[in-house]
Amino acid sequence: MIQEEIYEGYRLPKGAMILGSAWAMTRDPDMYPNPEAFMPERHLSADGKTLLGAERGREVFGFGRRVCTGMHLAEASIFAFL
User: Fold this and answer.
1) 81 Cα distance to chain centroid
2) Model's pTM, two decimal places?
3) Keywords in UniProt for this one (predicted)?
4) Euclidean distance between CA atoms 5 and 82, whole angstroms
5) Per-residue pLDDT at 18
6) End-to-end CA separation in angstroms for the chain
């Protein structure tokens, strides 16, 4: 943090390192109902096509400067397999 902030009642001191949790983001029941269940259909639109862009989550690949460099290769491989 470059300056002290208050976020949802929590004090975040200046100089604190804030880390995101991919585990928590991919198990958010508001975004993914029944998050522990294997449900690949949750990533399909109503017409059966894969969701694109902002419509789908990419948390599994990380975020920011640490995003997975193989993200596009992984998605292309899955698309070719299916």
Assistant:
1) 22
2) 0.46
3) Heme, Iron, Metal-binding, Monooxygenase, Oxidoreductase
4) 46
5) 86
6) 43
Segment 63-67 long-range contacts (CB within 8 Å, at least 24 positions apart): 63/20, 63/22, 64/20
**Residues annotated in the binding site for heme, as ranges?**
68
Residues 35 and 28: beta-carbon distance below 8 Å: yes
* Number of helices (H), then strands (E), in the chain: 2, 2
- What's the distance, CA 27 to chain centroid? 9
Q: Which residues, listed in sequence order, are joined to residue 6 by a DSSP beta bridge?
A: 11
pLDDT digits (tens, 9 = 90+) for 11-58: 999 999 988 787 887 888 888 889 899 987 877 777 777 666 545 566
Give me the residue spans of the domains in the chain. 21-81
What confidence score (pLDDT) does residue 60 get?
A: 73
Q: Residue ranges for the binding site?
A: 68
